[in-house]
From TrEMBL:
The gene is wrbA. PANTHER family: FLAVODOXIN-RELATED PROTEIN WRBA-RELATED (PTHR30546), FLAVOPROTEIN-LIKE PROTEIN YCP4-RELATED (PTHR30546:SF23). Its cofactor is FMN. GO terms for molecular function: NAD(P)H dehydrogenase (quinone) activity. Transmembrane segments: none annotated. This is Flavoprotein WrbA. Belongs to the WrbA family. It comes from the Bacteria. The lineage of its organism: Bacteria, Pseudomonadati, Pseudomonadota, Betaproteobacteria, Neisseriales. It holds the Pfam family FMN_red.
Length: 198
């Protein structure tokens, strides 16, 4: 079985729901299974220590998850057109994996959620790709052959699946967003199978 790491940070739950949908897409591909993981919040208090296991949701990511994965889906809410600091903090700590080439040649995709339709989703997705390119990963977007990409009135971009949560973070994931998230997970897993066979 090929493990596809679906790694996300979520504060209000929307990015976590996208991660779960992407995982369903991954799991639909024979020979692949999704491994859901998250990163801890960053504290403004220097002495604060998060519990070793989150109270709910996926377990925290470990370095072994990066080594074991055959592909990576990376997700974060949009913060001023960029990824959340918790995800950036984790990625900034992957210099050892970069030196060893742990992720080189593996497929990757990105996903995000924002409060508003024009809240910086595309710049977030593009800037999330940059460290993955430095790691030597093969970036997979969402092709326009996915009909929901041209039909969606909410989230969805060729750079990766997205969701518009609304200013109160209560907007449910639309049917088009669900379709795109599962399609992105399936595409990532299919690419991982092809690359692993070479």
């Amino acid at each position: 079985m090929l493990d596809i790491l679906v790694l996300y940070y979520s504060q209000h739950g929307a990015t976590r729901e996208l991660a779960r949908l992407i995982a369903r897409g991954v799991d639909s591909v024979p020979g692949c299974q999704a491994r859901l993981r998250t990163v801890p919040k960053i504290s403004t208090v220097c002495e604060a220590v998060a519990p070793g296991i989150p109270e709910d949701g996926a377990p925290y990511v470990e370095r072994q998850d990066l080594l074991d994965c055959a592909g990576l889906a990376l997700g974060s809410p949009t913060r001023f057109g960029n990824m959340a600091s918790a995800m950036k903090y984790f990625i900034d700590g992957t210099g050892g994996e970069w030196m060893q080439g742990t992720l080189a040649g593996k497929p990757a995709c990105v996903f995000t959620s924002s409060a508003s339709l024009h809240g910086g989703q595309e710049s977030t997705l593009l800037t999330m790709m940059i460290p993955l390119l430095h790691h030597g990963m093969v970036i997979a977007g969402l092709p326009y052959s996915e009909a929901a990409l041209t039909a969606t009135q909410t989230g969805g971009t060729p750079y990766g699946v997205s969701h518009v949560a609304g200013m109160d973070d209560r907007q449910p994931i639309s049917e088009h967003e669900k379709t795109l998230a599962m399609a992105q997970g399936k595409r990532l897993a299919e690419l991982a199978v092809k690359l692993a066979a070479k």
